[in-house]
Amino acid sequence: MTIAMQPIYTQTVGAGGTTGVNFLNIPQTFTDLQIVVSMRTAFAANYQYIQVFFNNNGSNYSATSLNGSGTAVFTNRNTQIEAGAVSATATSNTFSSVSIYIPNYTSANFKSYIADGVTENNATAGYQSLTAGLWRDTSAINRIDVSGAGQTIVQNSTVTLYGITKG
Amino acid sequence: MSKVIEVDCSTGISTERDMTEAELAAQAAMQAQAEEARAAEEADKAAKEIAKAELLVKLGITADEAKLLLS
Q1: Number of domains in chain B
Q2: Cα–Cα distance measured from residue B13 to residue A86, given in angstroms and rounded to the nearest whole number
Q3: Could you say which of A19, A48, A69 has the minimum Cβ distance to residue B4?
Q4: Residue B6 pLDDT class (50, 70, 90 cuts)
Q5: pTM
Q6: Whether B57 contacts chain A with CB within 8 A
Q7: With contact defined as beta carbons under 8 Å apart, do A9 and A143 qualify?
Q8: Is the CB of A102 inside 8 Å of chain B's CB atoms?
Q9: What local confidence, expressed as pLDDT, does residue A153 receive?
């Protein structure tokens, strides 16, 4: 069995930042997709989220997360795709590391995904999350929108979309 | 900031454009939802910390002593 992982596109955020990165017309020729994000936002709080939508649709997501904050461990249920983004109060020049894996994105079944993410900070407060999620929709995924949940994504953040083919 | 980057994966062309009114409204809703989720997480975390502190008071031990007991 051969497995190939092919970068479809890497978007690096330029000067001035942006609100979101949307991947349109995603090829339907792979087996799975993976989104890899390195993100920092301009939001002045300890923690900020990356938000991801499939097919420009903000509904029908259900997710369960196991989280750590540097001082506590907690779980939560959610109705959107989330993972950590470094915020403006974190150590300068640090970015979060997030991976979202979407198996069988063209199938006619509901779409499952796993999201793992960590934020970086030279302080006690540092966030980690591991999320199991489901998008209760049978449409093939042909668009993925990545945002900083309403906050400005700062320069040098990157979002890469990979296609994975299983032979 | 009201710009969004769109990548057309079929052509490999990336463009930046202004967000539409609908997108701006959706973005504001997303932001509110994220704020709500974060507030809920913070409240949950705070409640757990309070419960832990109350338990330690009931047991008459400190957090360090509890760690020693559990080690």
Answers
A1: 1
A2: 28
A3: A19
A4: very high
A5: 0.82
A6: no
A7: no
A8: no
A9: 92
- How far off is chain A from B12, nearest CA to CA, in Å? 7
Tell the residue number behind the tokens 């991801």, with chain if given: A52
Nearest-by-CA chain A residue for B12: A9
Residue B61 parent element (H or E)? none
- Quick check: B6 contacting A, CB < 8 Å? yes
Task: Report all structural domains of chain A as residue ranges with CATH numbers, in order of start.
Answer: 3-166 (2.60.120)
Structure tokens at B14: 């990336």
Range of the domain at B23: 3-70
Q: How far is B8 from chain A (nearest CA, A)?
A: 5
The ipTM value here is: 0.90
Predicted confidence (pLDDT) per residue in A47-97, tens digit: 677 889 999 888 899 999 998 888 888 888 888 787 877 888 888 899 999
**Of A37-41, A99-103, B20-24, B53-57, which gets the smallest average pLDDT?**
B20-24
**Among A41, A27, A16, A167, CA closest to A95:** A41
Is A24 in Cβ contact with B4 (below 8 Å)?
no
The stretch B18-38 carries a mean pLDDT of: 79
